Amino acid sequence: MTSNYQLNHLRELESESIFVLREVAAQFENPVLLFSGGKDSILMVHLAVKAFYPAKIPFTLLHVDTGHNFQETIDYRDRLVDHIGANLIVGSVQEAIDNGMVREETGYNATRNYLQTAVLLDSLEKGKYDAALGGGRRDEEKARAKERFFSHRDEFGQWDPKNQRPELWNLFNGRKQYGEHFRVFPISNWTELDVWQYLAVEEVELPSLYFAHERNVFRRDGMLLAESEYLPRRPEEKLEKMTVRCRTIGDITCTGVWKSEASTLEDIIAEVSIARQTERGGRADDKRSETAMEDRKKQGYF
Amino acid sequence: MVNSLAHTELLRFTTAGSVDDGKSTLIGRLLYDSKSIFEDQYEAISQTSAKRGEEGVNLALLTDGLKAEREQGITIDVAYRYFATPKRKFIIADTPGHIQYTRNMVTGASTANVALILVDARKGVVEQTRRHAFIASLLQIPHLIVCINKMDLVDFNEEAYNRIKDDFSAFSHRLDVKDVDFIPMSALLGDNVVDRSTNMDWYGGSTLLYALENVHIGSDNNFIDCRLPVQTVIRPYSDEYHDYRGYAGRIAGGVFKKGDEVVVLPSGFSSRIAKIDSYDGELEEAFPPMSVTLLLEDDIDISRGDMIVRPNNQPDVTQDVEVMLCWFNERPLQPRGKYAIMHTTQEARCIIKDVRYRLDINTLHRDEENKEIKMNDICRVLLRTTAPLLTDPYRKNRITGSIILVDEQTNETVAAGMII
């Protein structure tokens, strides 16, 4: 009898994530969902819609906007927010630069990626959010492999990897002092391939950037980067027209693109299944040092 | 392609072991031979191996974690790793094995279907092996695989394998473990991990990966005792769904069907299931570990922490709970201390009324004299709660039979418990 009662891995991951999302709604007063426009945050929104159907999602969406975006990301974001009737808040890095809260990096490798942390923490504080839902996955990067579903942050928004709460069964301890908050990662146990397979099964609409398209690109440090007014090129960095797609979508200055002919989700799944590089292999922000992610996380980055 | 993936099952396993018995090498080998390692990861560990002056590529480095851990050359926390074959997706809870890290082992074991226990073929069953086996039985991991590693260092000798198998069995008879498998291997050379060894023709069993792909996990969940702890009540407040009241939660046991008679605890009111709802449409039945929304025929006051069950099969409703406790915190257990207690979706406060005994996890001796409970100790206690809990014995149900204790000042999780 029991053999009929077995969920496949995608349904089991879905169920686990929905459980976590519902725990957040039940345990916190003012949760926010961090939305970057990337596939992982799109998955999160999709799961949240399912978790609270037929009610609207009980989370505000927060987009920390570096101002250096692919236009497709912003268009997609606005359509999605409109479609699900959610409330969107934008934390602007440009504004933080203008009012002197943060200072912009200069030079060819300048990126606003690091400035996001300050703007994120500022937005969380201003909105008095007590839980921030993120699309981080444990398979992404070695510092994430030890992250909890419910990750406690002190009043400075810092992560202390040596002092994390043990997490057992499905008992999630979201208790905190006033002024502290939690980062919650409902899709911790998904891999890149799981995400793509699920988005395909669920027929979720995705930004066009994820599919193969023609674009002007140039090479830097073994990566392909997209031509953009925000990305000054060195004299030797020549533009080439190529058929490419994004495997992750972040700030345009540090998101690498990949040569690819994958124009459907099926193609992408086939490509990811045989990929020989991790998806973050195209992220300049991780390449700064061996512990780049761990160091950023300690300061409050996602 | 997508359709063929629809049949992939998820299996969670835990590995426990120390640096010396080759645990990291074994995991590295599983990931490498199942082609789950990416070029940039492999390149990074090749460089590190070379930098450290090691011969060849050290696969153990794949599981290297945080900076602090790398500096000290030890693992201090549970790390989760992922790989997949066409048959199953695997989640590894990789835990350190030293006695100091009992709490990490317990954490990793809490959700596992299978425990891998590593034994060094040269050393045989040692204290640590017994400790791992005990924790696996305490946490009721349904399947154990004893990996008898480093067979290359005992000339792939069958006698060595048999001796360890007999020693382990003699010990595990005293524990509550049902399904144990023994596999001789060499993680370093790859024998019997993913590929069958050509050095041990005397061994007729399966490789580790084959065992992981084929162990029967279909009955690991409880499909008998219907339990739905209510997480949250869904009320859309829209014109279209004006009177909609959905009780959302993850099925913790049994199979719920539309039309079933149910009882809501602790109030005791009964009703019938009007609908099992989901975003994808109405469902005929719901079973663990599905997350669903139940609608009942009658209007009953139900809130988070309540449990929906069947009238002829109910959990215990009690304020006195006997538990086996694993202590996690640097501050020792306070006899007669008060803590917050979390159980399913319910929260209450409790007092530790009595410490029955402290268990020596190496000898299984019950110490009723020295009952001071420090970090990583395991003990049996009696708790008295401020509100009734809806419990099952942990042996029957790992979800409705487990609790955690939280320090009310620091909010840290200080202990995990299994209800007896």
From TrEMBL, chain A:
State the EC number(s). 2.7.7.4
| Keyword ATP-binding on entry | yes
Domain (Phosphoadenosine phosphosulphate reductase) ranges: 30-256
Q: Where is this region: Disordered?
A: 279-302
Gene Ontology molecular function: any one: ATP binding
* One GO term (biological process): sulfate assimilation
Offer one Pfam family short name for this entry: PAPS_reduct
Database matches in SUPFAM superfamilies = Adenine nucleotide alpha hydrolases-like
The keyword Nucleotide-binding appears for this protein? yes
Sorted UniProt keywords: ATP-binding, Nucleotide-binding, Nucleotidyltransferase, Transferase
Q: Which PANTHER family match?
A: SULFATE ADENYLYLTRANSFERASE SUBUNIT 2
Which NCBIfam families is this protein grouped with?
A: CysD, PRK05253.1, PRK12563.1
Q: Protein name, please? A: Sulfate adenylyltransferase subunit 2
TrEMBL record, chain B:
A Pfam family of this chain: GTP-eEF1A_C
Any GO BP: sulfur compound metabolic process
Could you tell me which CDD domains the record lists for this protein?
A: CysN_ATPS (cd04166), CysN_NodQ_II (cd03695), CysN_NoDQ_III (cd04095)
What GO molecular function annotations does the UniProt record carry, in alphabetical order? ATP binding; GTP binding; GTPase activity; sulfate adenylyltransferase (ATP) activity
| Domain Tr-type G intervals | 8-220
Q: Does the keyword Glycosyltransferase apply?
A: no
Enzyme Commission (EC) number: 2.7.7.4
UniProt keyword terms in alphabetical order: ATP-binding, GTP-binding, Nucleotide-binding, Nucleotidyltransferase, Transferase
* Enzyme's top EC category: transferase
Q: Which domain of life is it from?
A: Bacteria
| Keyword GTP-binding assigned | yes
| Name of the featured protein | sulfate adenylyltransferase
Protein's organism: Neolewinella litorea
Name of encoding gene: cysN
